[in-house]
Amino acid sequence: MEAIPMAAPPGKGEVMLQVKSVGICGSDVHYWQHGEIGDFKLGDRLVLGHETAGVVHMIGEGVTDLQVGDRVALEPGVACGQCNNCKIGRYNLCPEMKFWATPPYDGSLCNFITHPAAYCFKLPDTMSFEEGAMIEPFSVSVYACRRAGVTVSSKVLILGAGPIGCMCVLAAKAFGATSIMVTDLEEARLEVAKKCGASAVVQVPHRSDYDIKQHLLFVPDITMECTGAQSCIAAAMQATASGGKVV
């Protein structure tokens, strides 16, 4: 733990927020344990955390759609707003993106942060701060379902029952899918997937020669790969029906 200077007062178009809940992402754990992810390497220090919800504490000049006391979820990546991708609405592809807890930018695991108001979204009174902090990772699953075109008739295979995999179960159900199969190495994670609404689960062994196709209960037309493991990426391609989609 380390004491750091309090966030600067909000400037034009910004708000200061009191942080109420921060999720722990796999990237946070990786930085904590290894000090790097690919080309991103830690310097002397880094504040972790990017899955965040909080309360508006102070408002900067020009902010009209938020007020002190508003409960909000925060989008952790701030785009430049000037490049072609930003101008056509694909700001997620901005090459100048400043993303929390990605060196050299600090994250939100602190008491107060200053952030552009445009990247703060009001929470309904019925949603807790913990649920609000999960909007950022859940958006990954919603986007995956949109890209894959999940519908009522979809047969969905989800590889990996970690947080993103289980959120994909929830999202696929919300999109109408009823045939949702989840695979994982760990039985405990599969139990969580079942509680989230998976219609079937398959525990796979720690074997490189394991043929997942021989153990599936149906042939999926949509497969969501949620592990990042090279073997699972290959398995996703092999398991999906001809003409299907892998995301």
TrEMBL record:
Domain Alcohol dehydrogenase-like C-terminal: 163-247
GO-annotated biological processes: sorbitol catabolic process
Cofactors that this protein relies on: Zn(2+)
Keyword Iron appears in the UniProt entry: no
Listed GO MF terms: L-iditol 2-dehydrogenase (NAD+) activity; zinc ion binding
Domain Alcohol dehydrogenase-like N-terminal: 11-125
InterPro entries, per the entry: ADH-like_C, ADH-like_N, ADH_Zn_CS, GroES-like_sf, NAD(P)-bd_dom_sf, SDH-like
Keyword Translocase: no
PROSITE patterns (UniProt xref): ADH_ZINC
Keywords for this protein: Metal-binding, Oxidoreductase, Zinc
Protein family: Belongs to the zinc-containing alcohol dehydrogenase family.
Record-given protein name: Enoyl reductase (ER) domain-containing protein
Organism of this sequence: Eutreptiella gymnastica
